[in-house]
Amino acid sequence: MLTILKAIVRQFLFWILFFAITRFVFIVYNYSEILDNHVSFLEQLACFWHALRLDVATSCYFLILPFFVFLFQSVYFVNWLNKVVKIYSYLLVVIYSLVTATELGIYPEWKTKLHYKALMYLSHPSEIIDSADSKVFFLLLFIGILQIGIGIFIYHRYFLKDLVKAKFIWYQSLFLLLFFPPLLLIGVRGGVQQIPINQSESYYSKANIMNLAAVNSGFNLFISVHE
Fold first, then answer.
1. Which of 13, 97, 111, 186 is a plausible cystine mate for 147, CB 3.0–4.6 Å?
2. pLDDT tens-digit profile of 23-61?
3. What is the largest CA-CA distance in the chain?
4. Global pTM?
């Protein structure tokens, strides 16, 4: 069970770190506007702290599939399921990187995160490519690919650890089944309060760009599409 707990914690910590990396990229890319808004360095750093609750919620969403795979592995070990978790994580890195890179392109004009309406507009890529500045387009493409490369490298090098076959101990699997689903649910909701967490939980600054930087891009897009 200790091995599975370590695997879950590793997955969780990776996503917290990766969200912080893409947030840092957003801040650097839009740094001139941040300076124009006279945002202090301490207030910029505070963005990462105020982002944590939504980052934790998003991480818990991302952990749902790996948890049930790990739980199944604790009962009946199948080696190829390790590859399922790996491919799933790589795919999420790719999607999240492309979402955040796209936000870099739309923010200067729309002053917003990527949402459902913007996603519908982006469903016509030929129109976007025709209207976009070629230098900006290739810069954003490079940033997206760079984020993907960094994310996959960090995950594979420091956080990925395949489970190995171990003796089945029924009460350990039962503990995982009873303990972790409620914990993930609490994480997804952002706590035990009546109303689930929303994007406004990350708002902390008079400068809207810092509030948007603190909002998790995946969480924001998911809620927008869901609503």
1. 97
2. 999 999 999 999 999 999 999 999 999 999 999 999 999
3. 60
4. 0.92
